[in-house]
Amino acid sequence: MIELKPVTKHNYMTVVDLKVHPHQEDFVAPNWLSLLEASYEEERYPFAIYQNGTIVGFLMSSYYPADDAYPIDSWWLERLMIDKEHQGKGIGRKALTHFLKDYKPDKNVKEIRIGVEPDNEWATRLYESFGFTKEGTVEGENVYAGEWKA
């Protein structure tokens, strides 16, 4: 069973200790940095991904008002990572399914965006399998847009 629970003072160190494989380190920011950002920047929502009561991954969504980098007020799935010891078990797919179905922040929000490092073929295939389509490139990342699920 996959659950998403907010990162709190009770579970943040376990989230910080999660790691990806060395060849994946350029694909996602370290969890400690994401949690630091969430502590000091508004509209960032970090979640621990639990499988059967054990923290196995991390996800963070964010809201960004339009700016010079991206001209649309947007919700983003800013981080999604599964610990290297738990990869290849479908956890990322299940966590993304759960997130898109249950964490829609506002009934008027129709789209969510994801930035993907161009070399991250696994993430690209995953997001495209959910119907996300490439919109362009922002700050070196490919931007994909998709819809929240009902």
Structural class: alpha+beta
The chain-level mean pLDDT equals 92
Q: What's the helical proportion of residues?
A: 10-25%
Rg over alpha carbons: 14 Å
Task: State the low-pLDDT regions, or none.
Answer: none
Overall outline: globular
Strand order in space, largest sheet: 1-2-3-4-5-7-6
Report how far the terminal alpha carbons are from each other.
20 Å
Largest sheet: 7 strands, mixed
Number of DSSP-assigned strands: 7
Q: Which H/E pattern describes the elements?
A: EHHEEEHEHEE
Number of helical runs? 4
Beta-strand residue fraction: 25-35%
Question: How would you sum up this structure, described in words?
Answer:
The chain has 150 residues and is of the alpha+beta class. The protein has helices at residues 12-17, 31-40, 91-102, 121-129; strands spanning 2-6, 44-51, 54-64, 74-82, 111-116, 133-138, 141-147. The longest helix has 12 residues, at 91-102. The protein is globular, with a radius of gyration of 14 Å. The mean pLDDT is 92.
